[in-house]
Write a structure and sequence with these properties.
Largest sheet: 4 strands, antiparallel
Strand content: 35-45%
Oligomer: single chain
Distance between the termini: 46 Å
Strand order of the largest sheet: 2-65-62-61
Helix content: under 10%
Structural class: mainly beta
Number of strands: 72
Number of helices: 1
Length: about 850
C-alpha cells in the first residue's frame, strides 16, 4: 500500500536555511521553454478536505473556498463563486486568474460586496500575499488591502467583523503585520493591524477556529487555546476584552469547554451556540451560552461527535455539520443533523446519505435550501467531489450540478534514463489530458513519451534504476518487478510470492518503503513485511538479478529494524538504512543504521547500534553521509560523518542552518550541494531550493527558488542534473517563484563555483534569526570589529571583535548590512 507522500519524503535529509536571506544575483532561472505540466491527481480528495467555507453574497451567490485546483476543466485556485439560483460555477469570477496558491480555510463577505479570504496562501493571481487577501466582487485581487503584503506568518482559520467594521482574524499565527501576537489579530478596515489590540499572552500555541464579537465588543475565541495560567486542562473557549486582554469574569466557562471549539454562532436576541468535539466533561458536541456568556444546558439532540460548522435556519433551527454525529436515541452516526430551537433532534430532517468523509461547512440559502461541503466521496451512493445542495428537509437537490472539483497530481520520484529522459511516478491519473499509468516517461523537452508503456497490472509505490542501465526496479503492492528500458516487463526477473506481513495468512497487509539498486544488478527492498518469497527476511531483503532472495544477505531482525523507509548504497558496498521503530525507551521515532555489504550492523558506526531520533542522506558520492540527530528538536544538528561516525574535516554547515526532515539534496560537479528547505513540524514548510558550498557555507551567488506556497504543498521530491548542466526539480508543488509550474521545473544557467582550497575560502559570517526583531546572533571566522550599516551605508552599530549578539532595539524596520572584516550579510529588521 502506498505511503502518503509527505510521510515518505519527510524522512529524507535536507538543510533548512530558514534564517538566511541570500544576496540577489543573476544566476539560475526557470526555463520558460520547458512546458507547464497538468497532472491530475488519482483521487480528487487525496490532499484533504476539498471544501472548507461556503459564504453567501448579497446577490444570492455563494463563495466556495477550500483545497481544490480545478472545477471541471477550469483552473480555480481554491476559490470559486456559485451563481444565484442554478448554483452553477460563475465563469466570470476571477476569469483567467490563477487564484490562491494554497489552501483557503477562511472566507467572509464584506458589506461593500468584496471578500476576505485567508489560509496558507502566499500568492493570489501570482501576486504575493501573506495568508490573507481582499478580493473585489469579481474575484480579482484588491491591491489596496494593507494586510495582503504584511499579514500572518501561519495559517488563518476564521474571520468576523465587529460593530465598528474592524476585521477579527483567528488562526495559528504568532505574528501578524510584523507584530507578535497569539492566534488572534484585529485589523482596521484598511487591513492595517489595530495598534490598541493585543491578544492575551496566556493563549499558548493556539489554534483559533472561531473569533466572534458579542454585543459589548468582547470577543469569544474558540479553538484549542492551551491551559489557563497555573492550570493544566486545555481551554476550548475564552472571552477577550476589546483590548485583547483575557476577561476574568468568563473564567467559569473554561471548565465546560476543555475540548476544541470549532464554531461560535450568535443567536437572534442574544446568546450563542458553541460547537466542537464531544467529551467536554461528558457533554455533547454542541452547547448554548447566554448573552452574558454563561453556559446553558447542553443541546440534547446530540450525544457525541465532532461538530465543525453550524448554521441557523429562518425558523430558528440549528444545522450541525461534522463527522460521527450521533443523535440521541440512535446507534447510527451522521455528517449533518438539524436541531429544533429547544435543542432536541428534528426527526423530520433526513439528510442525503454520505457514507464516507466529513463535512466542514454549511450555509442556509435565502430560499431555505442548504449548501454543505467538506471531504466527500459519495452522496446517496453516487460519486461526489465535496459540495452538495440539499432541500430544506435534507434531501439531495437534483437540480444542483456537482462542480467536479479536482486536484493537481504530484511527482513522488524521478529517475533519469539515458538521453535526459525522466521517468516519473506519483499519484496522478492523467498527463496533459491523456490517461497515463502510475509510471510514465517524458521526452527531454517535457512531452509524454508514448513509446514507454508499463504493464497495466503494476501498482507502483517505489522505483530505482538497475545499476547504471536504463532498466528499472519497481516495488509495488507485494511484488518487486524489473522493467526493460521501454517499460516492458522483464520476464527473467521473478520474486516468487513476494512480500508477506504474516506468512500464516492471518494478515495480508504489507507495504514497501524503500528500494535501491546495486551496481551488480542486485536490488535491496525495504518496508513492512515479515517474509519474502516464503523466507524470513523481516523488513529488509536483497534480491539477486534473477529475483531470488539473496541468501548471503541477512539484515538485523524485525524487532531492531522496523519499517524501512530509506536505503542508500555507498560506493564501497555498505549501506545506510533509515527506518521507523521503537526506541530503547519505548518511544516511536526514526532511526539510522549503517550496515555491511552482507546486511550486518557496521561495528565502527555507533558501536553497531542504531542512532535514535535521526535521519541520513548521502549526496556526496563518496563513503560519507549527512547525519541529522535530535530530529525535529531545537537542538537538531546535521554533520557530515564517515563510517566511524566521525565528522569530516573541512565540512561544517553554516551555523544558521537548521537540520530538519524533508526533501532531497543533490551534489553538483563542483562539490556544492543543492537542496530544499524542509518542515520543522507538521504545519510549517518553506520549500525553497538553496545551495551550499563544498565547505557547507551558504552560497550567496545562488538565488533561492521558492516551490509551493512556503507553507504547505511545497514538497520537492527529486533533484537531478541533466547532461546540459540544467537541473530538473520534481515534487508536489504547483508554483515555482510564483509562476504556475506544477510538479516539474527545469532550471537553467546553474553557476558552478570556482572551487578553492579550504585555506583560500573567505571568512564565514552567519547571522540568525533573519528576519530579526530584537537581536541577532553572530558566528564568524572573520577577525575585526562588527559594524551594522543601514541602507544608506551609515554605521548604526559598532561592536568589538568577538561579539556574538547584536541588539536591534530602537532600529527602524528595514534592510541592514552586518560587516565583519571582508565578510558581510544582509539583515532584515522587522
Amino acid at each position: 500500500m502506498p505511503l502518503y507522500p509527505s510521510r515518505r519524503w519527510a524522512r529524507r535529509i535536507v538543510v533548512a536555511l530558514l534564517g538566511l536571506l541570500p544576496l540577489a544575483a543573476t544566476a539560475q532561472q526557470i526555463d520558460p521553454t520547458f512546458p507547464t505540466l497538468e497532472l491530475r491527481a488519482i483521487n480528487f480528495n487525496y490532499q484533504g478536505a476539498t471544501v472548507r467555507c461556503t459564504v453567501p453574497d448579497a446577490a444570492g451567490g455563494v463563495l466556495v473556498t477550500g483545497n481544490f485546483d480545478f472545477a471541471g476543466p477550469t483552473p480555480r485556485g481554491n476559490v470559486l463563486r456559485l451563481l444565484p439560483g442554478s448554483g452553477n460555477v460563475d465563469p466570470a469570477f476571477n476569469a483567467g486568474g490563477t487564484g490562491a496558491n494554497g489552501l483557503v480555510s477562511a472566507a467572509m463577505a464584506l458589506p461593500n460586496g468584496q471578500w476576505l479570504i485567508g489560509g496558507v496562501l502566499t500568492r493570489y493571481n501570482g501576486v504575493a500575499v501573506d495568508r490573507i487577501a481582499r478580493l473585489n466582487a469579481d474575484g480579482t485581487l484588491d491591491n489596496t488591502f494593507a494586510a495582503s503584503s504584511a499579514g500572518a506568518n501561519a495559517q488563518i482559520l476564521s474571520f468576523s467583523l465587529d460593530a465598528q467594521g474592524r476585521i477579527l482574524v483567528g488562526g495559528t499565527f504568532t505574528r501578524f503585520g510584523g507584530q507578535a501576537t497569539v492566534g488572534v489579530a484585529r485589523l482596521l478596515p484598511s487591513g492595517q493591524v489595530d495598534p490598541v489590540f493585543r491578544a492575551d499572552a496566556s493563549l499558548v500555541n493556539p489554534v483559533c477556529w472561531a473569533v466572534t464579537p458579542d454585543a459589548n465588543g468582547n470577543l469569544l475565541v474558540g479553538g484549542s487555546l492551551g491551559p489557563a495560567p497555573g492550570g493544566t486542562a486545555n481551554r476550548g473557549l475564552v472571552r477577550l476584552l476589546p483590548t485583547g486582554a483575557l476577561d476574568p469574569a468568563f473564567a467559569t466557562t473554561t471548565a465546560a469547554f476543555q475540548n476544541a471549539v470549532r464554531a461560535v454562532l450568535p443567536l437572534p436576541g442574544g446568546g450563542f451556540v458553541v460547537a466542537g468535539s464531544s467529551g467536554n466533561n461528558g457533554l455533547g458536541p454542541v452547547r448554548r451560552l447566554t448573552a452574558a456568556g454563561v453556559p446553558g444546558a447542553s443541546i440534547t439532540g446530540l450525544t457525541s461527535g465532532a461538530a465543525r460548522a453550524v448554521a441557523l435556519t429562518a425558523s430558528g433551527k440549528i444545522l450541525v455539520a461534522g463527522s460521527n454525529l450521533r443523535p440521541v436515541g440512535q446507534t447510527t452516526y451522521n455528517k449533518l443533523v438539524q436541531l429544533n430551537a429547544d435543542g432536541t433532534l428534528d426527526a423530520g430532517f433526513t439528510p442525503a446519505l454520505v457514507t464516507s468523509g466529513n463535512l466542514a461547512a454549511v450555509y442556509v440559502l435565502p430560499n431555505g435550501k442548504i449548501i454543505t461541503g467538506g471531504y466527500l466521496t459519495d452522496l446517496n451512493s453516487q460519486p461526489n467531489t465535496g459540495l452538495v445542495r440539499l432541500t430544506a428537509t435534507g434531501q439531495n437537490d437534483a437540480s444542483f450540478a456537482d462542480p467536479a472539483f479536482d486536484h493537481r497530481g504530484g511527482i513522488q520520484q524521478l529517475v533519469l534514463q539515458s538521453g535526459d529522459r525522466p521517468v516519473i511516478t506519483g499519484y496522478f491519473r492523467s498527463f496533459n489530458g491523456t490517461a497515463v499509468s502510475p509510471i510514465s516517461r517524458l521526452t527531454p523537452d517535457g512531452a509524454l513519451d508514448r513509446s514507454f508503456q508499463i504493464p497495466t497490472t503494476i501498482e507502483t509505490t517505489l522505483m530505482t534504476r538497475d545499476g547504471a542501465s536504463d532498466r528499472l526496479f519497481v516495488a509495488g503492492n507485494i511484488h518487486t518487478v524489473r522493467l526493460q528500458a521501454n517499460g516492458a516487463l522483464d520476464g527473467s526477473f521473478d520474486d516468487g510470492v513476494g512480500a508477506e506481513y504474516d506468512p500464516n495468512g492471518t494478515y495480508s497487509f504489507s507495504s514497501f518503503g524503500a528500494v535501491a539498486g546495486q551496481p551488480d544488478g542486485k536490488v535491496l527492498v525495504g518496508g513492512n513485511f515479515r517474509t519474502y518469497n516464503g523466507q524470513a527476511h523481516p523488513n529488509l531483503v536483497r534480491l539477486l538479478p534473477s529475483g531470488a532472495v539473496d541468501p548471503s544477505f541477512t539484515a538485523p531482525d524485525g524487532d531492531t529494524l522496523a519499517y524501512v523507509n530509506s536505503i542508500v548504497v555507498l560506493p564501497n558496498g555498505t549501506m545506510v538504512v533509515g527506518y521507523e521503530g521503537v526506541s530503547s525507551a519505548g518511544n516511536y521515532g526514526n532511526f539510522v543504521r549503517w550496515l555491511t555489504a552482507t546486511g550486518q550492523p557496521l561495528a565502527s558506526f555507533n558501536g553497531g547500534q542504531p542512532v535514535e531520533n535521526a535521519i541520513a542522506s548521502t549526496p556526496f558520492g563518496d563513503n560519507t553521509i549527512w547525519l541529522t540527530t535530535d530530529l525535529y528538536q531545537p537542538t537538531a544538528i546535521t554533520r557530515r560523518v564517515d563510517a566511524t561516525n566521525t565528522p569530516v574535516a573541512g565540512f561544517a554547515l553554516d551555523a544558521a542552518a537548521q537540520a530538519v526532515g524533508a526533501g532531497p539534496a543533490y551534489r553538483l560537479p563542483d562539490g556544492s550541494y543543492v537542496g530544499t528547505t524542509g518542515i520543522r513540524d507538521a504545519a510549517v514548510q518553506t520549500g525553497a531550493l538553496y545551495r551550499l558550498s563544498p565547505s557547507g557555507a551558504l552560497d550567496n551567488a545562488f538565488n533561492p527558488v521558492q516551490f509551493g506556497n512556503g507553507y504547505l504543498g511545497g514538497h520537492v521530491t527529486s533533484i537531478t542534473r541533466l547532461s546540459t548542466g540544467n537541473l530538473l526539480v520534481a515534487g508536489e508543488f504547483t508554483t515555482a517563484n510564483g509562476q504556475l509550474r506544477p510538479a516539474l521545473v527545469r532550471l537553467t544557467a546553474i553557476p558552478l563555483l570556482a572551487v578553492q582550497p579550504e585555506s583560500a575560502v573567505s571568512p564565514r559570517l552567519a547571522v540568525y534569526p533573519n528576519p530579526a526583531h530584537d537581536f541577532v546572533q553572530v558566528e564568524t571566522t572573520a577577525s575585526g570589529p562588527l559594524e551594522l550599516l543601514d541602507a544608506r551605508g551609515t554605521v548604526v552599530r559598532r561592536l568589538p571583535t568577538g561579539t556574538t549578539r547584536v541588539t536591534l532595539t530602537g532600529l527602524p524596520a528595514g534592510l541592514y548590512i552586518l560587516r565583519a572584516g571582508a565578510a558581510s550579510q544582509r539583515v532584515v529588521v522587522e
